[in-house]
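Fold this sequence, please.
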Amino acid sequence: MGWKGKRIGLALGGGGARGFAHIGVIRVLKQEKIPIDIIVGTSSGALIGGAYASGTTPAEMEQKIDEYLNSEEYQFSAIRTIEKAHSEEHASLRQKIQGFLQNKFLLLQAMFKPGILSAEEFQSMIDFFIPDILIQDTIVPFRTVTTDLISGEQVIFSEGPLREAVMMSSAVPGAIEPIKAGEMLLSDGGIISLVPVNATRREGADIVIAVNITRGIFSEEKLETAQEICDRAADITSYHLINYELTAADVVIRPGVGNLHWSDFSHAGSLIAEGEKAATKSMPDIRKAIPLFRKLFAKSGKPDYTA
């Protein structure tokens, strides 16, 4: 257990591809020997947190990302199509027209289906990174956060198949169809808690280190349609709700993720670097939150999950 009987929790927020920044954060925490007693993840935070909690090192995660992004499975996936449709800044006229048509096709699909991506298609990506084990068998205690669309309540998974729990936490509304589980219809944990600080406390953490990978609030996008205005209003609401929950954290690490779309997976390398930079910058605050953490931790004789 962390410092002087205190349990230290790591709350990893959601944000699609921006979640790669979590790898950089974890790498620095591991290098600095910060003892983590529990990891709680939402969406992409569940994916990266679940992989690390299962024993996958940051270096191994980087290697897996490279393999996945260069695989035919990814290159011909709907996820790649969505990324292309949102990456038009430096594209040619032909590419912009193709991106526009692809985007309209995806939107048309969304009008008749519960998600642009099927659960099966997204599950293959989850399976690539997450081992086929139970949550209760992870090396570091781990939890995923989801939202039940029926009751409107938060659901935290502490046992059961790890891959399924990560999948349910990562089901981005509109992009990935929700998953039926008994009487529940489960979707992205970020609907209620994009950075699961309060969930980490409820699961027993005394000291919470939160990682926020949401985009900044300022935007220069033109707001010309009703859909764009509604989307912008939702972003503003989400931003302020997230910051309200972050006040309950002891330390908040904020990687510089810019305004990257959730599907911008090709930016993995720079996002990992931003995570490292932000975690290094936050180390003085982390040490203040855990006074004399390393010396007292070494004397406690407790298991070091960061080893």
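The first strand starts at residue 8 and ends at 12. The radius of gyration is 19 Å.
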